[in-house]
Design brief:
Elements: H1 2-47, H2 57-62, H3 65-83, E1 93-100, H4 104-116, E2 128-132, H5 144-153, H6 172-178, E3 182-190, H7 194-200, H8 213-217, H9 223-229, H10 231-235, E4 238-242, H11 244-247, H12 272-281, E5 289-292, H13 295-300, E6 308-312, H14 327-338, E7 345-352, H15 359-376, E8 380-387, H16 400-406, H17 416-424, E9 430-435, E10 445-446, H18 450-458
Parallel strand pairs: 1-7, 1-8, 2-10, 3-4, 3-7, 4-6, 5-6
Antiparallel strand pairs: 2-9, 8-9
The structure holds 2-acetamido-2-deoxy-beta-D-glucopyranose (NAG) (4 copies).
One 2-acetamido-2-deoxy-beta-D-glucopyranose binds at residues 326, 328-329, 332, 372, 376.
């Protein structure tokens, strides 16, 4: 009897202690949650201290209405700065748009003009900017061919040997090809110019017309030939620009597409356009290719399935032909060729501004073209390099920049206004605007060799991770 009462008592007690545990447990849990919340709130506040600057309105309230407008605007800009984020993933493709023939002063003037209309250039809104030194400035005479080789091979300018025929430097474009990427080069100059030469050729002799006979006899191939016969030239998926008179001896001449007597001309018997087609015809397995010479042909072309596209749209430089295709059209078609599922690409575009046409006008056009292009491309590292380095001169010319330096002494003879104008022509560093995956690589001031190395890294061409 006593035993069963004791048992009941014990059961009741156990029941009560279970309840007690539940209550105590609940209290403890809520305490923990509270602590956690406090901790998180404090951390959030610490992390977002700067982002909440707008909430600190006691200072804002103390300034005049005239200043408050700008305070608010400043806060907006700060907020935007804090939101900047650039993915560190590898870009699928890279566009390098090289705009040359524009000084920092001209760019600033154009920019100021546009700002008045509240329409900034698209590259001015890129999150990252770097300055690329222009070592051309310290060389006398400066050779455009060497500058381009330095820029695209990552070897310092003074280490690039100006060899007549067998440069052995690999360009970043060739590296991209070897890594299986599709590649393209588009220019408003001739396709045999210094930029193209540094990308795919081992010489700077543009064509056979001006090449010394001895060099030809020794088997040296000029740039025009190498575009077709070098490994890099053969692998190039897209090549668009001018320079027909360097490729073929017989070319149609119109008043809207004249010959340029200053440039090299193919020796008689040469027809490299035909040779290119024949070479592509022989490829096994069969490849799809097109060779075009008219803007209208390019306009109607469906390039989506092409393996190779060559367009030679002018006898001389592209802008010397009034009927040449626009950069916009060339880039649209280039994208059609380069784009392939699962395969990346590297596209290098050279655009030399015409000194006879208003620079702002040309920049506006480029702004529109680039905007179009970027809308069609996701996961792209887009680089815009603006330069006034005298990358235009052929190897026989003396750099205009160098001349400017030599003329420094004469400056003291000049009036104030003349002096200002001359100073604006002095060498400047190139500006590089970057947007997209890995654009963080472009910051600060760099030697021109940096571009090639950074590009190779961004595209994953080298096994950098084991080296860094
Ligand atoms: C540049 O393009 C952007 C669109 O990306 C446009 O909003 C802006 O007005 C253009 N600026 C100029 C100067 O053409
Ligand atoms: C380059 O060509 C020159 C002759 O033009 C020759 O003397 C030299 O050995 C060549 N160098 C290489 C690396 O082939
Ligand atoms: C271009 O050709 C591809 C494949 O042949 C086709 O799918 C596409 O619709 C064509 N594009 C146009 C604009 O005709
Ligand atoms: C290039 O493509 C863009 C986007 O599809 C288009 O807006 C533009 O009109 C095209 N330009 C030309 C010249 O075909």
């Amino acid at each position: 009897m006593a035993a069963s009462r004791l048992k009941q008592f014990c059961l009741k007690l156990r029941f009560k202690s279970t309840q007690l545990f539940i209550v105590a447990g609940a209290v403890l849990l809520s305490l923990l949650v509270t602590l956690l919340c406090i901790g998180l709130t404090i951390r959030y506040e610490v992390e977002h201290e700067v982002a909440n600057v707008a909430d600190v309105d006691y200072w804002k309230d103390q300034v005049s209405a005239a200043q408050k407008v700008w305070y608010d605007k400043g806060i907006e800009e700060l907020k935007q700065a804090l939101r900047i984020y650039s993915p560190q993933t590898q870009p699928r493709q890279v566009l390098l748009l090289l705009i040359s023939g524009i000084s920092a002063a001209t760019l600033a003037a154009a920019r100021f003009e546009e700002e008045l209309q509240h329409s900034p250039f698209v590259w001015d809104q890129f999150p990252h900017v770097a300055r690329i030194k222009n070592s051309c400035s310290s060389h006398s005479p400066c050779d455009a061919n060497l500058v381009y080789r330095s820029l695209f091979s990552g070897v310092p300018l003074n280490e690039v040997v100006n060899h007549p025929c067998n440069h052995t430097l690999h360009s970043v474009l060739r590296q991209a090809q070897l890594a299986g990427l599709r590649t393209g080069f588009v220019t408003n100059q001739r396709i045999t110019g210094a930029a193209a030469a540094s990308l795919v050729a081992s010489t700077n002799w543009e064509c056979d017309g001006l090449m010394p006979a001895g060099l030809i006899d020794s088997g040296c191939q000029d740039v025009a030939q190498q575009l077709i016969f070098s490994e890099a030239g053969q692998a190039l998926n897209v090549l668009l620009g001018g320079g027909r008179q360097l490729l073929s001896a017989k070319v149609p001449v119109y008043n809207w597409d004249p010959l340029d007597e200053q440039l090299c001309r193919a020796r008689s018997g040469r027809n490299l356009l035909r040779d290119w087609s024949n070479q592509k015809l022989k490829l096994q397995p069969k490849q799809r290719f097109e060779l075009l010479q008219l803007a209208t042909e390019l306009n109607t072309l469906n390039a989506t399935n092409l393996d190779y596209l060559w367009g030679v749209f002018a006898n001389a430089n592209l802008h010397q032909n009034s009927q040449a295709p626009s950069l916009d059209l060339m880039l649209n078609k280039t994208l059609e060729v380069l784009r392939r599922p699962g395969v990346g690409h590297l596209l290098i575009v050279e655009h030399v501004l015409q000194q006879s046409v208003d620079a702002t006008q040309q920049l506006r056009q480029l702004n529109e073209t680039l905007t179009n292009f970027m809308q069609q491309q996701k996961n792209t590292l887009t680089l815009v390099l603006l330069t006034n380095g005298n990358y235009l001169s052929t190897s026989r010319d003396v750099s205009e920049e160098t001349e400017n330096i030599n003329l420094l002494e004469d400056f003291f003879e000049l009036t104030e206004v003349e002096l200002q104008l001359q100073m604006q022509k002095l060498p400047s560093e190139s500006l590089l605007f970057a947007k997209g995956p890995k654009s963080l690589l472009f910051y600060g001031v760099h030697e021109e060799t940096y571009l090639a190395h950074a590009l190779a890294y961004a595209l994953g061409l080298n096994d950098f991770d084991n080296q860094l």
